[in-house]
Model the fold of this input.
Amino acid sequence: MKYTMKNLNIPEGYQAVMPYLILNNAAGFIEWAMYVLDATEKMKSFREDGTTIAHAEIFIGESTLMIAEASEAWGVNTAGMFVYVADADTAYARALDRGATSIIPPNDQPYGRTCGVTDTFGNTWWPTQANTDGSM
Done:
């Protein structure tokens, strides 16, 4: 039996699958993503203290990533993510500049130029520059 997802009525700017990261220093992560991955801030709401991020959303390209600050009720939840970028070498250098640890330096693969880093928030990233002809 084939399962289809019809009539989901997903709001504009959202996708059927979106990573939701719960991190220590959510605000710092958002700054990191804006610098390294050219992310843009979509929205941010705060807890009662007015400074702790309860929920935030950023765009990386046309994809939405959701973020919240970890708490006693919501423990840290990191992820490993493959992300297309305009320039893998630049993303790699910026990531290291902001404290990321190298997993693999930029290198050419059949699907494009790629690299791997672990950010200081515990997430693993695979920034990849697609082949100019769109091939995999």
